[in-house]
Structure formats: C-alpha cells, structure tokens
Amino acid sequence: MSTRIVKYDNDILGLDQGMVRAFLILGKEQALLLDAGVERDPGFPELIRQATDLPVSLCLSHSDMDHIANAGDFDRIFILSSEKKRLLAQKPELSDRLIEIDEGYEFDLGGRKLSSIHCPGHTPGSLALLEEERSLLLSGDTVSYGPVYMFGKGRDDKAYLETLVRLEEMYESGAFQSIYPCHNSCPIDCQAITELIECIKGIMDGSLSGVPTSMRDQEGRRVLEYHVGKSGIYHI
C-alpha cells in the first residue's frame, strides 16, 4: 500500500493510507507521529524523512491493528499505560521500545506543546492529544464522523459516553475549537462530539434504531450502523 502525505495547517501533515490517517506534528526541535498506519509500507520512514529532518518519536492513539502497522520502524513509542498490555498481545516485539505515559503527559516539540488525554471507551487506553495554544484536538478514533467502531473486545459503552461528555465540557470551556480525527473527514466540527453522545445514549437505552451492515463480529452477530447528524457508530 502506498502512503500519501496531506498537508494540514499549523505544521501538521497527514500520512494517509486510504481508510486511516496518521499525523506528523512538527515542532522547532522535534516531531511527533501519532499512529503508524493500517498496512506495512516499506517507504513509510523515508516519506517521513522527506517531510522533516527533525528527530521523530511515535505516539499511539490506541492499539487497534489499523494504527500500528509500521510501529516497528520507531525506537521510541509512547503509549498510555492502560493500553500497553493490549498492544503487546499483538506486537510483543515492541516491548523494549515502549514508553508508558499517563493522562496529562506533555510532549514539548519546541515551540509547541501537546498533552495527552485518556479517552477510554473505544479501547481501554485510547488517547487524544490536545494542543491548547492552537485550540486543536487530535482525537484518534474517539471522535470522528465515523462510524466509530464500538463492537468487539475492549469496547466499553459507558466509558465511551463518559469520555465524550468530558470532551464536550472541555470544548465548551474553550480548550479546543477544531478536531483532527484518524478516520473519515478532517478536520471536523466539534458538533460531532454532541452527535456521538446522542448516538451512544440512543444505543444504550434502545431509543435509536440501527441499520444492518454486511459486517459480523467474532461471534457471528450482525453489526448495525447508527447515525445522528453526520456522525455514526458501528455496534451490535
């Protein structure tokens, strides 16, 4: 699979592999890569080197397979402590490269700082990166037009709702005004958070009807697609 670079504002590049994008955030002294793609691309490191000669570290928003394919190309891999076990179950060879972080860890890239936000729900240790000075949230898979995958091992509806409510409160307090997700359109309107709150609430209380898809979970159950506004969730 080829990887395509898409330039966003404020020295943020998207490494687009079609169904998913990683983000390369450039500071004055260092660069940070958020996620590592859905398929192995031998040209992945060279593409980054063409974009910057800064030292690059990798931070994983979570450990789903569509975000970690090229993680082995990096010597320093930051991950939330609550997601480490899940990652190593899939890629044990990364063990000696992992740097465990927790809520509030700050990446200082020189001239720009990003802090980690623990966003459980999609996975136990999902994270988002907040650049408050530029009013920007890099949301991983937690917020997007989706549909966000909320079926399978590790998903937690209650935790996801609590995360979304917290993010909505942060948005309303002025912490960020735009969202850069790893799937679908980018950037997106913060209204997506409110829509996803309504969507997951409707799934949990049964007030929202889903449309059957062609997907099935590991137990053979049909996956349903739920929508509110532009945003959606895949669920059983």
What are the defining features of this structure?
single chain, 236 residues, alpha/beta, Metallo-beta-lactamase, Chain A, seven-stranded mixed beta sheet, five-stranded mixed beta sheet, 4 helices, 16 strands, 32% strand, globular
Instruction: Provide the spatial order of strands within the biggest beta sheet.
Output: 1-2-3-4-5-6-7
The percent range for helix content is: 10-25%
DSSP summary, beta strand count: 16
Terminal CA distance reads 30 Å
The ordered H/E elements are EEEEHEEHEEEEEEHEHEEE
Rg estimate, integer Å: 17 Å
**Per CATH, which architecture?**
4-Layer Sandwich
Q: Biggest sheet: strands, sense, closure?
A: 7 strands, mixed
Overall geometry comes to globular
Helix/strand/pairing category: alpha/beta
**Fourth-level CATH superfamily:** Ribonuclease Z/Hydroxyacylglutathione hydrolase-like
- So what's the CATH class? Alpha Beta
CATH topology-level fold name: Metallo-beta-lactamase, Chain A
